[in-house]
Amino acid sequence: MPHTPRPAGFQSRQRVVAGAVLATALAMVGMAYAAVPLYKAFCQATGYGGTTQVARQGTDLRGARTLTVRFDTNIASGLPWTLTPETRSIEARTGETQTVFFKVRNLSDKPFSGVAGYNVSPDQSGSYFDKINCFCFSEQHLGPGETAEWPVVFYLDPALEKDETMAHVDSVTLSYVMYPSRRQPGSTPEGAKF
To answer: Would you say the pTM of this structure is higher than 0.85?
Structure first.
């Protein structure tokens, strides 16, 4: 069988196609890794999905509306804690800084660490729910049988009064779920050898 010569530039085109396929694959892997942090940043910036905003301090602006803010708490399995708000709801005028305390207790005879997940509902209220201080911003530690009171300081942005989607919203619910931390006190880091 005679050998048919390949056209000039054939290998060069193969290299270009292979390079393009490799670059596309690497870009897709990179986007997969970036998706979670980018989605989180998007939600925090826009309040999408009930993600609250973070504020450094209260506002001097005062609004005219008063909304009921309800508090909901849950504990994920694997974390032997209780978490209860000092009150189940408050009346909050837009622009006024509010402080609510949450009482937490470690029911076990071992130290545990937890991290809070949170959101507000209805979802569109996340853009206007500004937290100044919250136990959800960092990992929390409790010793055996220890109790603590954690403050949540927030305000409802008066700008919500101009948003048509908030016109008929009379109440907002702030929900927390406490999850066990990946690394508990006294545990060894993954991969540690003795």
So the answer is: no
